[in-house]
Specification:
Elements lengths: L18 H19 L1 H8 L6 E6 L5 H12 L3 E5 L13 H9 L5 E6 L4 H8 L4 E6 L5 H15 L6 E5 L6 H10 L6 E5 L8 H9 L4 E3 L3 H6 L3 E4 L9 H9 L3 H4 L4 H4 L7 E3 L20 H19 L4
Parallel strand pairs: 1-2, 1-3, 3-4, 5-6, 5-8, 6-7, 8-9
Bound molecules: N-carbamoyl-L-aspartate (NCD).
């Protein structure tokens, strides 16, 4: 692809999306959802983006984000290239992120989907990239495309993105999905938040300060059951063991049942109002018991499919088509 002359449409943070753009992307996702299910309309999608190339550069583990971007691009006719095996690339020889981005750009992809190890690295990549960078998770920083798909899931399931009590639990200090989702949900009126986390895993103050500055109500508590009973959305997460600090490692060593203590079974999920929904970015590693899967409030598997549709919309946006 020739180099673009207009500003590049990077996707770096949930901050950059306003409510107008969010609804445009949601509308596209709705239409994409109909088209992927309907063979007669599929041809409208199938060749839309042929000639474009999506490159996935993943320095860290992933199943859903890596695969859903690949499928989203393929459904629209793009070619898909990339690597999850950076240990076999020049990165293993000590090449910088910037030089790797310059290298990939010289082969003219249409965009690069990047999962990186440290906060801020997506922005660092964008600074040297000649094509849009899509932040697919930068350390404990942000995961904007996940937040968009989470909010889209809420819209599809509850029919609104405002006036919600959103309860978030688990590792709120290291989880990037919760950080980005708070930023996004805070753009809509009358949303309130309850945060539940083990000691040392609480939501970081930059996010809390942002909520305070916008006069958005939030509450931090250790009481899981009353929070569940008053929730519209429960968003549960795992301990991000690959990114915990020394204090958190010590806490887990001294409290080995932490994972189980924060695990939701049917006994807990039954406390949620019938209209409420239970979400999880996945992977789950025990913090939602298998017995919950068949409860109609559990929508974490549907969430993955909504992710495909939103990523189709985000690819279109990054290319300048919506
Ligand atoms: C999340 C992530 O990578 O931040 N997974 C995902 O993208 N679906 C959550 C997690 O790994 O716990």
């Amino acid at each position: 692809m020739p180099q673009s002359v207009t500003p590049l449409r990077h996707i770096l943070s949930a901050d950059q999306f306003d409510t107008n753009l969010i609804s445009r992307i949601f509308e596209y996702a709705d239409r994409a959802g109909e088209a992927v299910e309907d063979q007669r309309r599929y041809h409208q999608l199938g060749n839309r983006l042929s000639g474009h190339i999506l490159y996935r550069l993943f320095y860290k583990e992933s199943t859903r984000t890596y695969e859903s971007f690949g499928f989203a691009a393929t459904h629209m006719g793009m070619a898909v290239l990339g690597t999850q095996s950076v240990q076999f690339s020049s990165v293993a020889k000590g090449e910088t992120l910037e030089d790797t981005i310059r290298t990939i750009c010289s082969y003219r992809p249409s965009m690069i989907v990047l999962r990186s190890a440290k906060d801020g690295e997506a922005a660092q990549a964008a600074a040297v990239s000649s094509v849009p960078i899509i932040n697919a998770g930068d350390g404990s920083g942000e995961h904007p495309t996940q937040a968009l798909l989470d909010l889209y899931t809420i819209q599809r399931e509850l029919g609104r993105t405002s006036g919600l009590h959103i309860v978030m639990g688990g590792d709120l200090a290291n989880g990037r999905t919760t950080r980005s989702l708070v930023k996004l949900a805070a753009k809509f009126p009358n949303n309130t938040f309850t945060f539940i986390a083990p000691p040392t895993f609480e939501m970081k103050d930059d996010i809390l300060a942002e909520l305070r500055s916008k006069n958005i109500q939030y509450n931090e508590t250790a009481e899981v059951k009353p929070a569940l009973a008053a929730a519209d959305i429960v968003y549960w997460t795992r301990i991000q063991k690959e990114r915990i600090n020394d204090a958190q490692t010590d806490y887990l060593a001294a409290h080995p049942t932490t994972g189980e203590d924060y695990s939701l079974g049917l006994a807990e999920v039954t406390l949620m109002p019938p209209h409420a929904r239970l979400m999880h970015p996945l992977p789950r590693v025990g913090e939602i018991k298998l017995e919950v899967d068949s409860d109609p409030r559990a929508i974490y598997f549907k969430q993955m499919h909504y992710g495909l549709l939103i990523r189709m919309g985000l690819i279109e946006w990054a290319l300048g088509y919506i």
